[in-house]
Amino acid sequence: MDQVGKVYPNGTIAVQQANLQAGEGEFLCFVGPSGCGKSTIFNMIAGLTDQTSGELSVLGTTPKEARKQNEIAFVFQEHTLLPWAKLIDNVTMPLTLRGVPKKQRIAEGERVLELVGLKDYTKVLPRQLSGGMKMRVSIARALIARPKLLLMDEPFGALDEITRQTLQDELLNIWQQDQKMTVLFITHNVFEAVYLSTRVVVMTPRPGKISEIIDIPIPFPRTDEFRTLPEFSSYVRQVSEVLKH
Ligand SMILES: Nc1ncnc2c1ncn2[C@@H]1O[C@H](COP(=O)(O)OP(=O)(O)OP(=O)(O)O)[C@@H](O)[C@H]1O
């Protein structure tokens, strides 16, 4: 994205002069206070709203085209699962909507449920699951079409700390196995951003700007030990300092 801006019809300047290049297989976390334009940037990348200035290209094409080709998937904090549908039907819904034959749908559904550790839960209904398990199902559903770009808007914000850390590790595992999938992840949690990212994108509000992009050059796989290292605290401090200005 090159000098991308978004002014809503009511005059709100949500994003100003945003410049960012994300490479294949990167994991970028966006942090910033409420209203700094994180969701607006995601909506523009997903082709759900147009930028009002600048150039934006996603996977070598326009955001709308990339979305049409099913190369982008979304995960939100709210799990948005269908309450009456078994897990296998929930995760295969994107394929059902596209008319993929049942046999192939089921095979893909089982593949992604296994990826998130829920292979024995295909026939269970969402209400029988904990919050963390529901989030795993949402992630499985997003992965079913093998997206090249995964957009995650505060996915773990409603989870307790232990579940959150477990899911962070699981997500990193899935991302590492894929090697090519790029993940863009919004969080308010600086610790989470540093733990997950190859780079942290720090935004400031009024008007929403990318104020700094901080490299986290710690190799993967990262383990709980990383959370206790002095480097970890030092990156957390660095991101927090930028957020304060
Ligand atoms: N459809 C809209 N019309 C007008 N203004 C909007 C619209 N959507 C968002 N805004 C405004 O644009 C600014 C950026 O909003 P956005 O939701 O992108 O921020 P955010 O960083 O994602 O916030 P949060 O962390 O609370 O989700 C805010 O001032 C918001 O009120």
UniProtKB/TrEMBL annotation:
GO molecular function terms noted in the UniProt entry: ATP binding
Keyword Chloroplast: no
Domain of life: Bacteria
Keywords, comma-separated and alphabetical: ATP-binding, Nucleotide-binding, Transport
Keyword Metal-binding on entry: no
InterPro entries: AAA+_ATPase (IPR003593), ABC_transporter-like_ATP-bd (IPR003439), ABC_transporter-like_CS (IPR017871), ABC_transporter_ATP-bind (IPR050166), P-loop_NTPase (IPR027417)
All copies of domain ABC transporter, residue ranges: 2-226
Annotated PROSITE patterns: ABC_TRANSPORTER_1, ABC_TRANSPORTER_2
Pfam families tied to this protein: ABC_tran
SMART domains: AAA (SM00382)
The name this protein goes by in its record: ABC transporter ATP-binding protein
Species this protein is from: Paenibacillus filicis
Species classification: Bacteria, Bacillati, Bacillota, Bacilli, Bacillales
